Amino acid sequence: MDSVQLQDFAAGLVGGAASVVVGHPLDTIKTRLQAGQGYGNTLNCVLTVYRNESVVGFFKGMSFPLASMAVYSSVVFGVFSNTQRLLSQLRHGDPDSTPVLADVALASMVAGFISVGIGTPVDLVKIRLQMQTQPYIQANMKLKPTVPGFPVYRGPIHCIRTVLQKEGIAGIYRGAGAMLLRDVPGYCLYFIPYTIVCGWITPDGSISPNPSSIWLAGGVAGAISWGTATPMDVVKSRLQADGVYLSKYKGTLDCILQSYQNEGLKVFFRGITVNAVRGFPMCSATFLGYELSLKAMKRDQAETNP
């Protein structure tokens, strides 16, 4: 793999880290709304978390995603860019030629498919750590942590070890089916709007978009992709939160049916506002981190090899 191909992975690493720092507090709120109980609306959820757990509550489970999301984003951007380059090479004989939208879509789907292998365990650990302070309510039965202040999982490594012991490898990949259904179309609605909006607002003759164009295009892409991904994101969150105390769902379809029967169609749009709102700054940060670090690496390479 040459340095150009590696640069995409390295730039994705920077973008992923930036997105976690910006988006994790809203991600915590989104997960509590989707899989928790008794929060009502978004504002009520924010106030409840702050009142009960202070500012620290919004950053629960962040250390693991900060490291792992950087790797995850590195894979997504690396696979996407290199697939796109390969398709341009096959179509035009030049890997650096401007890709057509069909190639952007195909590269997005490949990136979404590959990313699930890393993303499922990352999301599972993050959601278990975010949700373990919540009472589990099923019918008239309530289960709470046996000793207040002593949650089920002591941290990400303990969470992985516990899940592996109790549920095996299948437990770590719980929700993978829902994540595939979310991410394969989701990344199409991520990279395609970004490409289109960047093209619209970048002045003619510019070699690359400026930071404000990247920020706006990334934000729009994030809001669109996360907003439309919400129904499968709800299913994935519920499947992955399931199992902290009891296992309620047999799989993706069972989760969809049970959720619909118990709460109606509106349950699949729970957290859509926070998802779309959170998607804007998170994806702006991701694309800014990616594009600016890529530009810096290319500039350094040009100076090193005049």
TrEMBL record:
UniProt entry keywords in alphabetical sequence: Membrane, Mitochondrion, Mitochondrion inner membrane, Repeat, Transmembrane, Transmembrane helix, Transport
GO cellular component, one term: mitochondrial inner membrane
A Pfam entry, by short name: Mito_carr
Main location: mitochondrion
Family matches, as InterPro entries: MCP, MCP_dom_sf, MCP_transmembrane, Mitochondrial_Carrier
Topology of the protein relative to the lipid bilayer: Multi-pass membrane protein
Solcar repeats: 3-86, 99-200, 209-296
Annotated localization: Mitochondrion inner membrane
GO MF terms held by the record: transmembrane transporter activity
Transmembrane segments: 61-80, 100-122
Coiled-coil ranges from the UniProt annotation: none
Similarity comment text for this entry: Belongs to the mitochondrial carrier (TC 2.A.29) family.
Name the UniProt record assigns to this protein: Solute carrier family 25 member 48
